[in-house]
Specification:
Elements: H1 3-14, H2 17-31, E1 42-46, H3 52-60, E2 65-69, H4 73-82, E3 87-89, E4 101-105, H5 113-122, E5 127-134, H6 142-154, H7 160-175, E6 178-192, H8 195-204, H9 207-212, H10 216-224, E7 233-246
Parallel strand pairs: 1-2, 1-4, 2-3, 4-5
Antiparallel strand pairs: 5-7, 6-7
The structure holds S-adenosylmethionine.
Residues 3-4, 7, 23, 46-49, 52-53, 69-72, 75, 105-107, 110-111, 115, 205-206 line the site of S-adenosylmethionine (SAM).
Length: 247
């Protein structure tokens, strides 16, 4: 299933308070790394989803015009309700105005290499802020350990290292054209009441899709069926925040 089709299928579940708190926080801590003196009047956001990050952008930069690009129509339908002042589009319009800031919160890992190049090109002359999921390395919580077991069972070898490498490679390629202001990790530890809650969160946010592709629904069922004796399950999410601006 293509990413946009997947997010179309979960848009209503995605647009829930638990996810809103999570994604708003990630957008806030990424924007915290931007130099405060930056003058921002035009923003392009790529992979805007249901507008959680868009809303933070509109709060931080109330006078800025925001173009929020999101390919999944059902996600956009929520986005226009959250942030009516933003212009939501399925792709970047050919006649778009240049942006002072290009933002991409937890979406760049879904882009093809060509789309990632386009994202970087959009930021020429301005600033860029991204969050990209990476593996939490050795700081694994019990939920991460269960997921790791499933990865080993479903696949020949885990793909954890790939995510960290992808972010490093991306930051390095940016460094050829931009001044890198920061590449910093941020962790969020979520607590779930049941394996079903954990499985739903990993599924709806797209983590199971990026790890297991077409077997994501099967992975969700397997995690849902975990025999769990503890009071809660913790899961550690780690993201790299990348902030850069044009030379
Ligand atoms: C995990 S969600 C993040 C949404 C939003 N940025 C937030 O913070 O809540 C990932 C989003 O990336 C979008 N996406 C997937 N492929 C994309 C692409 N090729 N171009 C732009 N967005 C894409 C998905 O449709 C989805 O809404």
């Amino acid at each position: 299933m293509r990413p946009a089709a997947f997010y179309d299928s979960v848009a209503d579940e995605y647009d829930a308070p638990r996810h809103e708190v999570f994604y708003r926080h990630l957008a806030e801590v990424a924007l915290d790394l931007l130099p405060p003196a930056l003058k921002i009047s035009r923003i392009i956001e790529i992979g805007a989803g249901t507008g959680f990050g868009t809303e933070i952008l509109s709060e931080r930069y109330p006078a800025a015009a925001i173009l929020a690009v999101e390919p999944a129509a059902a996600m956009r339908a929520h986005g226009v309700i959250h942030v009516p002042s933003a212009q939501f589009e399925s792709t970047v319009p050919a006649d778009h105005a240049a942006a002072d800031l290009v933002a991409c919160f937890v979406a760049a890992h879904w882009l093809t290499p060509a789309e990632r190049d386009d994202l970087v090109a959009l930021a020429e002359g301005g600033a860029l802020v991204l969050t990209m999921p990476v593996s939490p390395g050795s700081d694994l919580e019990d939920g991460n350990l269960e997921l790791a077991k499933l990865v080993r069972e479903f696949r020949e070898r885990p793909t954890w290292e790939r995510s960290a490498r992808r972010t490093r490679d991306f930051a390095q390629s940016l460094g050829e054209r931009f001044d890198i202001v920061a590449v910093e990790p941020v962790d969020v530890v979520d607590t779930y009441a049941t394996p079903e809650d954990l499985a739903a969160s990993l599924y709806v946010r797209g983590s199971l899709g990026s790890l297991f592709g077409d077997r994501a629904a099967e992975a969700r069922e397997r995690l849902t069926a975990l025999a769990w004796s503890g009071a809660t399950i913790k899961f550690r999410w780690r993201f790299d925040r990348i902030v850069a601006h044009s030379r």
